[in-house]
Amino acid sequence: MSDTAIEADGLGRRYRRGWALRDCSFRLPAGRVCALVGPNGAGKSTLLALATGLLRPTEGTVRVLGTDPAAAREHIAYVAQEKPLHPQLTVADTLRMGRELNAARWDDTTARSIVAELDPRARIRSLSGGQRTRVALALALGKRPELMLLDEPMADLDPLARHQLMGALLGHAHEQGTTVVMSSHILTELEGACDYLLLVDGGRIRLGGETEDILAAHVLLTGPVGDLAPHTVVESRTTGRQLTALVRTEGPVGDAWQSMEPSLEELLLAHLRSPEAPVLLTPSAESREAVTTA
Ligand SMILES: Nc1ncnc2c1ncn2[C@@H]1O[C@H](COP(=O)(O)OP(=O)(O)OP(=O)(O)O)[C@@H](O)[C@H]1O
């Protein structure tokens, strides 16, 4: 089993109207639960589709579980944003199809538990968006994949269902050592769930690495307006004579400043408001290809 779930090197994808993703080099170690965040149109779905092998790169490479994405497909479960399922099949037929397609590994107990509250005779076309999500997640978990790629999986679930399914997903991932990549716009939901982070913005990776290490590399400073050197300023705001700034520290912070660790939401929002802030990849998130060829 590879110790790397995804490794991208100079990865790019162009559509007719321009680049959706460009110059992406990063590594996602295996066994992590990774939040994939970024604004609308940032390139998150494109990155996930490239990792499944459903899209081909225009430039660069992506390797998944140590091999070509197409060769790894059997070990990948992908839940696309639009949750494509066969509308005319029933819930029970859909799970049966999952079992037949993945006979060697199928986890029927988990798959059934995810859809336990649905009528097995109900046709997919008659289900609500959130109910379809349940079926799509049941298929994904039933497959016992090594890598789950989930594109906004929780977006149309009610808060209770979201809580329950997130718990089931994380419990399963923990038990099986599955790597999970989950795109989402709900930052507070990701905070407790994900131990790894990829921030994509404008088709490029802006932050990558262990959530804890990325948070620890930043502080929120409040103090008198003044020079913040040698620290790297991600974002700063002045109110009268008071300055509030999110910085990457380059040494001790002077006594004049009050410092606080930012929340994940504060950190991400500051980076999204400051596209010029330098990229930060922790050592584990650096592509080995890029490192060895640099
Ligand atoms: N099939 C396509 N044809 C042409 N352009 C596309 C296609 N798919 C995506 N794009 C463009 O590529 C860019 C990235 O889109 P993508 O769907 O990857 O973003 P995203 O981060 O997943 O967005 P969202 O959060 O809104 O789902 C956007 O500018 C989008 O318009």
TrEMBL record:
Pfam families: ABC_tran. It comes from Streptomyces sannanensis. GO terms for molecular function: ATP binding. Residues 6-227 form the ABC transporter domain. This is ABC transporter ATP-binding protein. The lineage of its organism: Bacteria, Bacillati, Actinomycetota, Actinomycetes, Kitasatosporales. Keywords: ATP-binding, Nucleotide-binding, Transport. It comes from the Bacteria. InterPro entries: AAA+_ATPase, ABC_transporter-like_ATP-bd, ABC_transporter-like_CS, ABC_Transporter_VariousFunc, P-loop_NTPase.
